[in-house]
Amino acid sequence: MYPTRRPKFRALSDVLEYGGSARKQEAADAALGGLMQHARTLQTLQDALARTLPPAMSQSCRVANLSGDTISVLCNHPSLGARLRQMGPSLINAWRLAGFACSALEVRIRPGLPTDKEVVPFRRDPLSAGAAEALSALENEINDEGLKAALARLRQSANAD
Q1: Which residues, 6 or more positions from 119, have their beta carbon under 8 angstroms from its beta carbon?
Q2: What is the pLDDT of residues 18-49, one digit of tens each?
Q3: pTM recorded for the entire structure
Q4: Which residues contact 155 (CB under 8 A, 6 or more apart)?
């Protein structure tokens, strides 16, 4: 048989900074900290984009990167990309007001970019009278106090709606 090689597990920060092994733990922590800071920066840019664009447009656009003084934005459709390019000066101004020294906007089209979906709240139908009676009867037959209490909570929460 062939000898099997055991996988060598590496920290994500090691891979990001050095491609394999960090020279020092401080360097590994700095790489991960830099990645987290970049993510916070992108979120701040996304927030400024969402405040500047109409709501329907902002749902289909995402800030992808900040590289030097260029901000890259992904959008779902070419017509939306054309509209973003037209709004470039106002977007750059909004990002400057948010504290970023940017001077260029790069728009990329990504048709598969997910849009924000409205969260539909969960709503449970109330128990029927027969189901409530059956739970109550089962609750009276059971000796286990924990299970009895759980059935009582189920019956009460289902009838509370």
Answers
A1: none
A2: 444 445 555 555 666 778 888 889 999 999 99
A3: 0.53
A4: 127, 132, 135, 136, 139
